[in-house]
Structure formats: C-alpha cells, structure tokens
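Supplementary Methods S3. Input chains for the assembly prediction are listed below.
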Amino acid sequence: MTESLFNIPFLAIAALIVISLYIIITQKNLIKLVMGIVILESAVNFFLVSLGYRSGGATPIYTNAPEKLMVLPVPQALTLTSIVIGVSVTALMLSMIILIYRHTGDIDAEKSRRLKG
Amino acid sequence: MQSLIIHSPILAIAIPLLAAFLTPLIGKFSSKARDIVVIVALAVTEFLVLILARDIYASGLHVYTLGALSPTLATPENFMIPVRIVLEVDAMSVFMGIISATVALAAAIYSISFMKRETGGTKFYTLLLLLTVGMIGLEFTGDLFNMFIFLEILSISGAALAGFRIRYADAIEGGFKYLVISAIGALVVLFAVGIFYGQYNLLNIAALAKVMQYTSLDQLALVLLIMAFGMKLASVPMHMWAPDTYSVAPAGTTPMIYVASQACLYALIRICFTLYGVTMNTSTIGWIIIVLGVLSMFIGVTVAVKQTDIKRLMAYHAISQSGYMLLGIGVGIAVLADPVALAAYGKTAISGGIFHIVNNALYKGLLFLTAEALFFSLGTRDLNKMGGMARNMKYTTIFFIIGALAISGIPPFNGFTSKLMIYESVYQFSPLLAVIAMLVSILTLASFTKAFQSAFTGPALPQYNNVKEVPKPMLIGMGILAVLIVFFSLFPNLVVNTIVNPATDSLINQAGYISSVMGGL
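Predicted structure tokens for the full assembly:
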C-alpha cells in the first residue's frame, strides 16, 4: 500500500502533462496556449522535485541535519533555476501577445495570422 | 599564454555575456563606442575559440571545472563523480564554436549600418551577444542541465531578435512561434534530464555515458531528446516555425538564428554519439535520423521551389540542407556498432555531415545576408516585384552567385565537396538514399536559378533607378563569409584534415571522451 502511495505524484504529473498537451494542441486562443505551456512547465518542475524526495527526509541543510536522512538538494536547485527561466519565457510570450493584439486586434491564432505559404 | 588557453573555455562564454550587459550602459553615452565594444567582444571571443581549437587539435579534450582548485580537474578530491559545473570541449565542440563565433562576428559587423535605420539598437546588440553566449555555452558544456540553461538563453534571445521589428505584425508572429516551439522543446529536454537524474543521480555527460544502461526509461529520454532537438533544428515534420521566423528576423540575425539551430543539431549529435554511443540500438536510431533527414531534404526543397518571398525561399532551403547533415550523421549512427562498415563508409558519412554544417553555415549565412541586402535596398521581399538588380548592386550580385553555386553543390565550390562525401558514403549504405540526395541538389539549383533570374537579371525597372549598393559594413559582413567560402572551396583537403576529421574521430571515440573527463576512475 505504501509503495503505491509513492506513485501518486507521478500520476499527477502524467495527468498535468496530458492536460497541457491537450491545451497546446487544441486551443486557438494564444493566452490559453501560454497557459498550456505554463502547466507543462509546472508538471516538469513537479517531476524534478518529486524525484529528489526521500520519505522522512529532512531539509538538505548539512549543519541542521547531520545524522538524519535528507531529501536530495540538486533537483531543488534545478527546479529553482527552471522556475526563473519559466517566468522570463512567460513574460516574453505574454508581451508578444500584447503586441500581436495591438497589430491585428485579435488573439486567435487563426485570425491574427499573417504569415502563410 | 598557457593560462589563457586553460581559461579560454569559460572566457569565450563570459566575455560576450559581460559585453551583453555592458552595451546598455555604454550605449547611454555613445552609440559609436557601443558598436566598438560589441565588435571587440566578438573578435576576442573568436580569438579565444581559435587558440583553444589549436590546442585541442594538438593535445585533445579540454576540461574546465568551475570553482575547482585546479580547473582541469573534473572529479575533485574525495568525490568519485564530477559534482561541479564542468565544461568539456572536444574537437567537435570547438568546431561548432568556431562556426558560431565567426558567423556572430560577421552578423554583428553587417548589423551596424542596418541598425542605424532602426530604434532600440542597444537592446539589439545585447540580444545578439546573448544569442552568441547561448550557442557557445550549448556547445562547450559537459553537463546536461547546463545544456538546458544555454538552450533557454539561446531560445529567449533568438525569439526576441526574430520579433525585434515590432512595428511589423508578421515579425512578432515569427518571434512568437519560435518562442512557443523553443519553450516546449526546452521543457521536453528538462523532462529527459529529470529521467536521467532519477535513475543515475548524475548530470554530467561523460559520467552518465559511463553508467548508461539503455533501460526503457533511457529509451523514452532518447526519443524525447531527439524530438526536442529535431523541433529546434526545424527538421520535417517539425519545421513549421522555421520559414516564418527566418523570413521576418532582421538582417544579420537570420544567419545567427540559423546557426543557433545548428547548435541544437550539435546537441543531438553529442547525445547520440557520446551519451548513448553503442549502448543504444544504433541501427533503429540511425534510421529514425535518416528518415527525418530525407523528409527534411525532399519536402524542404519541393516547397521552396514555389516560394516567391525570397527569405521564405531561403528558409525552406535551410530546412532542406539540414536534411543532408541528418542523412550523413544518421548513416554514421546506423553503422556505429559495426567497425568494418564504420571504417569503410560510416566515418566518411559523419565527416560529410559535419563538413556540411560549416559549409552550410557559411553559404546559407551569406545567402540570408544578400536577401536582407535586397530587402534593405528595395523594401520588398517579393521576387516578382524585383528585377535587374545586377546593374545597381554589383557586389551583392557576386555574393549571391557565390552562395547559390555553393548551395547547389556545383564543383569546385565547398557545397560540392561535402555533398560528394555524403553521396559516396551513403551510396554504399543504400543507393536509393544517395539518388534522393542528388535529386534534391538538382532541385536546389533550379530554385536558385529562378531566384537569381527574377531578382538580378532582366530589364531595369523604372521604380528602382535610384537604388544603390548597400553600405560598406554590410558588404564587409558578406565579404567575410564569401572569402571563407572561396577558401574552403580552394582547399577542401586542408579543411577536412585539420578541423573536420578530428571532430569525427572524437565523436566516435566515446571511451576516449569518458576517460579524459573521468580520469582513472
């Protein structure tokens, strides 16, 4: 029973990835597309953090927990970096959508499209 | 000098990065000083990469560990695995580094006069330098997570550059598409990195390669990585962004974004050869890459033939040319586990593919720049509205002819040499593939003949009577690439022996790569 409990985070990650891919593939609204990408990013971050989790582990500060089991610090560092990058990508995407809206008056991927062929 | 060589891997990344954030400060006082800083920073980067290359060809792989007592020590005292950020530069990485640094320098020189017409020039140079950092970092890193970081630096700055002319609606659209594709691709890469970390608790490429088991999770990671980098590389069927992005990116940056996509090809090659090597099912993976290559080659060129927008035409040719590289490298991977076939034709196929990367960066870069020169002078990208430009723009015409002959593989130009290497070796692997490759080459020639005929020949059009040749810095930028093409065409053996073959050797020598990084462990 306890073994299968550990898989719950990974099931949640799989669900998030499926939801995000569905949004990215089907939605025409650019804001919704960005939302899909942000959900995908959260899923990947969640995946990294759950990889480093050890049941009963302490916070990975060596001076605080010298004897005890600690959770892995590296995935947490990776996740922090990934969150920072994700924020900048999202900001750039949203600012581009604002400009697209100003030029074309629409944020629908089909209607605001100019490049074809 | 010796310590400069030791520290050059990190300096080649740090100097453009420093210059990127110095330019806004200096640009506040003088735009001339800012231009000088940009050019000097890129020239120093080029110099560092070149001296590093010279040393690598003489003494092999360079390891640079950040924050270690001695930077050449990858595994610090008391640790069995590399725990710090490690740069691992071998002949293949430095080969790509030379291409990136050279094209960045030419593009920056070309951009100087172009940017006089635009506003926000300072931010343009910051982005251009950041794109250089992203490319060189991606090529020099020895750590999968840093590969993701540099991929993101490259993507964000590339997308912002593509959409730089925000007064055009189509420019924003091209930039946005690039950013969406890059964001999804990078997240897929990060997911694959997570899979590796979850299994092996390692991020270093050499350390991972040593313990690689090729479990079903590793297979999933490999598929994800091929998909993500194939997307960034614009190989068919994941190429939709490329024509849109390349056609709207401002002058000078199109070749850079193109070379950035070649840096992603490098990442794909590095993962296939060094990370997985012979542990993977080489023939299946090889065939997957061959199929991607043939599709890109054929579909790219057939769509290019009917284009009337000169930059879209060149973008589709860029997709088609990437197919040649994937074909050569795919054949090499398919026979990687078979020493006899590898020696007979596999090595030539890989060398041909790698040589095609540099040739293509040069002539495709030159062609993109000539297309931008036409747009700069005429204000249109539509081939049907151009004509008779050979009268007004003599040098641009000559540069266009050089580029067009090289891309079509006409002897004695450099495109012919690398294509011949691919034809010969691929023919021994599968004659049908070689026939397709030659057919694509003929279609390329047809398409460029059409483009040349509509833009440069024909009667003089009255509305373009006053059109003049583009300013000198733009000519110098194109000239650098044209001179290199002529040099590569005249001395193909020299180039293949000094820079291409060492890259191939270091790629197929996976054990050598691992032992030079991990030492005796």
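The longest strand of chain B covers residues 62-65. Chain B touches chain A at residues 145, 148-149, 152, 155-156, 159-160, 163, 166, 169-170, 172-176, 179-180, 183-184, 186-187, 190-191, 193-194, 197-198, 201, 203, 243-244, 247-248, 307, 309, 312 (CB under 8 Å).
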